[in-house]
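Complex record, two chains
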Amino acid sequence: MSLAKRIIPCLDVDQGRVVKGVNFVGIRDAGDPIEIARRYNDAGADEITFLDITASHEQRDTTYRTVEQIASQVFIPLTVGGGVRAVTDIRRLLNAGADKVSINTAAIFNPDLVRESAERFGSQCIVVAMDVKALDDGSGRYELFTHGGRKPTGIEAIEWAQKMADFGAGEILLTSMDRDGTKDGYDLPITRAISDAVDIPVIASGGVGTLDHLVAGFTEGGADAVLAASIFHFGTYTVAEVKAHLAQSGIAIRA
Amino acid sequence: MTQTVAVIDYGMGNLHSVESALREAGASDVVVTADAKAILAADRIVFPGVGAIRDCLAEFRRLGCDTTLRLAVDRGTPVLGICVGMQSLMARSDENGGVDCLGYFDGTVTRFPRNHSDADGTKLKVPHMGWNQVAQSQNHPLWDGIADNAYFYFVHSFFLPKAESDYVAGSFNYGIKGSAAIAKGSVFATQFHPEKSHDNGLKLLANFLTWDGTC
């Protein structure tokens, strides 16, 4: 008996519509986040992450409605991230039915947001998302970036992860901006380094292309969960196929 | 006969998920309330909880829910505690520097150790977050149709060590054994979140909705 490693499909949602679409057999509306979330729920996903990429803050009422609808039909944990700036945003998302809220850029500009929200709502619902890139100076160091990997922050990744854990984050969502979209596999060295450096769970993200990449995320990367978008959305693999492969590789999963 | 379920709302977080899951499990009438009359009029009661236990209990008591719950339990109304709701039913918790709880069960809630690891030295993260197996140790009506060692969703840093008490209905193993569920009389409580535990959780909620409060 042990804690199962988690498989987390991620939906990118813009104004209530899933972007990139989803390739499921018999799906009525490939852009409907509610139908897609329910499919993943039924398929055996362990959690669902919903990344809101709606540019305008004013249009976010749609986001709250979508979260409410997903939460009333999906009975596995739901994480919502994207555009979270203040404690009031977190409260609204939790009240709409999110189980966890992921904070990214706002944590960099205002680290106390993490501390304050963890104290107010509990660490269990505060995820800190980190977008990192390897420095090309041969130092082996990684730096935190914002704006989809375009803007460096000068913040070293491992120190940041430790600081966020100290501030009360309950989990870290680590995305390699070098690997994101490449299908070359997770950046294993930084995943391992951060997983070893903190006591809270780490979710590996960015770069999955094959089933063995997922295995490596757990075995070599030491991740507690793996996040994937395109391999699921485009129907490359089903959640069941992923879980069967992980089980064969000796990874504890929820059957 | 219409059965009413009261979900105790003492202002500590979102109860939308619990309410939705109860409806999915077959509840036709769910009220989310702190009102004593409404709670006592219900056929069964859910005591959810999330966040820090000191704040939870302070609000619970301030709203008089402790007295209401005591009256309901004395009448034999079926009660389901969830997560911090379960921990609140214990005698004491070490969280927040030590808190006296409601005392329905003996035992003290404690934190997973710092630098927690498995028997083979594998580092174990805290919170205990994710799906773990529950070994059933009682033949309780709420386990009907749920396989032994089925997976449920947990998220917590504090836990009730698995004492060899009669009231432990199920346990989990996370480097150390903990109580996943406890039961006594008309009270059943889980450390895991049935409302987030997919089919197994919905089955447990469905069992709760038809349970008469006896074992």
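Note: The first strand of chain A starts at residue 6 and ends at 14.
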